[in-house]
Design brief:
This protein has helices spanning 2-14, 18-56, 76-84, 87-118, 124-134, 143-152, 159-163, 170-181, 185-193, 198-209, 211-226, 230-235, 244-248, 259-291, and strands spanning 252-253, 256-257. With 295 residues, it is an all-alpha fold. It has a two-stranded antiparallel sheet. A hairpin with a 2-residue loop joins strand 1 and strand 2.
Length: 295
């Protein structure tokens, strides 16, 4: 009799109630709605990429066609991009400038961020406030005075002019300072017991443990520099110094453009960034989470 009562109680507990069924049904419906919305958003984001690939494979007579699938796909556009302009040189310039800016920004950001987070000196907060205030000023606002300064220094039409004005910005300093403020002090105090100074503590303890954040900062800096257009267009009139984004603009004219070539050049320019994303997507996601940036 006791066993029968216990079985009835167990069956009663295992039997789903109408409330639990309703909760499961609501959860299932919300999951389906979330998947549908995510699919629509993914399609919206992917459509320009698909349109670019389609346009790169279309012959000139189909360049303005609204069809996504080319009727006569061809690779002549890609060949023409390399033969009409020195596109390979533009790619090399973009790669060199992006790597140099990334190395300088990450190195300077790590050192300045650590100094502003850990070192105690007079005016530290004022210096950080000045750094932070520059984040509120966009490049187009200071473009003319920045170009004036660079031209007075004789850096126009040089690689230094392409690299240095954008290699010391406030964002890496701000990002690394916030990271070092949450860095465990116990690790640095352990190094202090071994007699390590600030420099040795930074190079032997802090810097190796900052690799994930430095990698995230490096990835996001490389992508931003690779896609930059306004400053390279302003400071470099010599065609041998043009980067790939400026080179693509040569296929546009006042009254139109060769869209098949523009799409082919854009596809070639997007390949390095796509490869960076495929190999370092975890660092990119971490950098977006750490910096609070939104797409």
């Amino acid at each position: 009799m006791r066993a029968t009562t216990a079985d009835q109680i167990r069956v009663r507990h295992e039997r789903p109630t109408s409330e639990s069924l309703q909760r499961r049904r609501s959860l299932r419906i919300s999951t389906v709605i979330a998947l549908v919305l995510a699919s629509v958003l993914a399609l919206v984001q992917l459509f320009p990429l698909l349109w670019m690939v389609s346009g790169a494979l279309k012959p000139p007579e189909e360049a303005t066609s609204s069809s996504l699938i080319p009727e006569s796909p061809t690779l002549d556009n890609i060949v023409t991009v390399f033969t009409r302009i020195p596109f390979a040189r533009y790619l090399a310039n973009s790669l060199g400038v992006s790597v140099a800016v990334t190395v300088l920004l990450v190195g300077f950001g790590a050192m300045a961020g650590y100094a502003l987070a850990r070192l105690r000196f007079r005016g530290r907060e004022a210096i950080f406030a000045m750094f932070f205030s520059t984040l509120l000023v966009a490049l187009p606002v200071i473009l003319v005075p920045l170009f004036y300064v660079v031209s007075r220094m004789g850096l126009t039409d040089t690689y230094a002019g392409l690299i240095l004005p954008v290699a010391f910005t406030a964002f890496p300093v701000f990002l690394m300072r916030q990271f070092y403020l949450s860095f465990p002090r116990e690790l640095e105090e352990a190094a202090d017991l071994d007699g390590a100074g600030y420099l040795r503590r930074f190079t032997r303890v802090v810097l190796p443990l900052s690799k994930p954040m430095l990698a995230s900062l490096g990835v996001i800096t490389f992508l931003a520099t690779w896609n930059s257009f306004l400053w390279p267009l302003t400071v470099a009139r010599d065609r041998d110094l043009w980067v790939v984004q400026v080179g693509i603009a040569t296929f546009q004219s006042q009254y139109g453009g060769e869209w098949n070539l523009i799409m082919a050049a854009s596809l070639l320019a997007a390949i390095p960034t796509l490869l960076v994303f495929l190999f370092l997507q975890r660092q990119i996601i971490e950098s977006i989470k750490a910096s609070g940036l939104k797409g």
